[in-house]
Design brief:
This protein has one domain: Gcn5-related N-acetyltransferase (GNAT) (Aminopeptidase, 3-Layer(aba) Sandwich). It is an alpha+beta fold. It is globular. The chain is built from 7 helices and 9 strands; from the N terminus they run E-E-H-E-H-E-E-E-H-E-H-H-E-H-E-H. Strands 1, 2, 3, 4, 5, 6, 7, 8 and 9 form a 9-stranded mixed sheet that branches. It comes from Geomicrobium halophilum. Keywords: Acyltransferase, Transferase.
Amino acid sequence: MKHIQTYYSEEIHINGRKLLLEGPISSEQIDRYDYHPGLTAFRQPKDQKKALMGIADLPEGRINVAVEDGMIIGYITFVYPDPLERWSESPLENLLELGAIEVAHEYRSSKIGSHLLELSMYDDAMEDYIIITTEYYWHWDLKNSGLSVWEYRKVMEKMMNKGGLQWMATDDPEISAHPANCLMVRIGSRVTMEDIQTFDNVRFSNRFMF
C-alpha cells in the first residue's frame, strides 16, 4: 500500500519548559537535531540516533519527536513488525508496530509519551492501519521508576490508551510468558473486516491446536 504521511507539529508548555512535538520527520531533520544523552534504553545515544534516521528512511517508517532547544528529548517510532516476531508473518501491508517510545528520564513525569501518541494519531492516514505494540515487562525501566511490574503495566496501558490503543488477547508465546506482558492494538476506522479477520488469525495462530 502507498504510505501517506502528513506532518504535524505543536508546542506545549510543561513545568516552565517549551517543547516542540512534531512528525513524522525525515532523517535529515533528525540529523540536524542534537540528541539527549539520557536516551539509552535501546542503544548508546549516537547509535540510536542513527537507528532513528534509518527508520525515517523506510517507506513505512514514522518518527515523531519531542524537542527542547534543538535537542530530541523523546521519540516514538512506527515500523513494520520485527521479522523475528509472529506479527511479521501477517500478509497485511497496513499492519504497523509502535516499535519504540522513549523519553529522557528527567522529562518522564510530564506525560510527554502520551502527548507524542496523541500527535501520532492526528494524521488521518492512521485510520487505514492496524497499529500494535507488544509490551514486555523486561523492557520496562522498573529500577528508575520505582514502580512494581503491575504499577508500570498500568502506567503503560494508560499512556497507550491516549493513542487509542486497547488491550487485546493473544496466544503469542512471548506475550504469554508473563501475565504483565500484553498486546495493545488500535484498529483504524477504515480498516476492512477482512483485514481484521486476517489480523485475528495471527493473534490466535494456535486456536485450533489441541
